[in-house]
Structure formats: structure tokens, C-alpha cells
Design goal:
This protein is mainly α and 152 residues long. It has 6 helices and 2 strands, in the order ααββαααα. It has one domain. β1 and β2 form a beta hairpin.
């Protein structure tokens, strides 16, 4: 898996082991690591959206792995660069580490290998997701979206 060195994998296996069934879901696993976002809401408004600070060796190793993905030509590298432009470098590292934690959880739970995608495949998914999001929001507001090619 890109970004993970043998030392990082050894830290993960030493701290977590190969059995992750003590965690009901990937969100519980990432929360245990201290990588899950904690939204503080009041009246439907998000007041703070922070990640809890916990001294966890696995989380530290995943953050280091996330930093190494910055120049990687993979889907995870493209995700990290996109988040870096969107939310800033420090929060992008935590978001990428969170994504790595979820991937590792499912790899350990299902005993399946990681299926790597390149950055181009990831970048092709983004416009499709944006179109689906626009259609969903328009439908919620009572409108329909009709795709048209841009004028030449």
C-alpha cells in the first residue's frame, strides 16, 4: 500500500494486531486512533470540527504516511493534494490519515489486499460526484438538472 513503509506496518500490527473485530465499525476504529472528526453542534450549527488529541502510535505513524503521499501519483496522493488545497496542509494530513485508517480497518477485517488506483482514475470520479451532488440538491429543492454541453 502506498505511503506505508515496513516500519509503519509493523507499528500498526504491534498496536492493533490482525483482529479488528473489537471495533464495531471503521468509524469506531478511527475514533480510537483519534483521527475521527468531532463535530460540536448547537442548534444545528457546527461550532467546532476538530480531531481529538490522543497519544496514539498508530495515528502518529498514519500521519507520517499521509505526509509521504503528497508527491505520490496515486489516488491517495491525489486525495491528499485535493484536501490540501481545500482545507489546508495540517488538516489534509489528518484527513488522509483518517482515510488510511479506514482502508486498513477494512483490509484487516475482510482479509483482502489493497486495490491501488492511480491519480487519473481518482480525478475522473470527481466531476461525476459533483454532477450527482448537484442533481441531488436540485431534486431536494424541487428542480431538475438538464446537462448541456458548454457553448462553443
Amino acid at each position: 500500500m502506498d505511503g506505508l513503509s515496513s516500519a509503519t506496518v509493523q507499528i500498526i500490527l504491534a498496536e492493533v494486531g490482525t483482529d479488528v473485530h473489537q471495533f464495531p465499525s471503521a468509524n469506531h476504529f478511527s475514533s480510537w486512533l483519534g483521527l475521527a472528526p468531532h463535530n460540536e453542534k448547537s442548534g444545528g450549527k457546527i461550532l467546532r470540527n476538530r480531531v481529538g488529541k490522543r497519544p496514539n502510535r498508530v495515528a502518529h505513524a498514519l500521519r507520517l504516511a499521509a505526509v509521504s503521499l503528497l508527491r505520490s501519483n496515486t489516488a491517495l496522493g491525489a486525495y491528499h493534494r485535493r484536501m490540501r488545497a481545500k482545507i489546508g496542509p495540517a488538516q489534509a494530513v489528518v484527513a488522509t490519515a483518517h482515510k488510511l485508517a479506514i482502508i486498513i480497518f477494512y483490509m484487516l477485517r475482510d482479509k483482502t489486499p489493497f486495490k491501488a488506483r492511480n491519480a487519473q482514475a481518482y480525478d475522473q470520479l470527481i466531476p461525476d460526484r459533483q454532477i450527482k451532488s448537484l442533481e441531488r440538491n436540485a431534486k431536494r429543492l424541487g428542480f431538475t438538472v438538464v446537462p448541456q454541453p458548454p457553448p462553443a
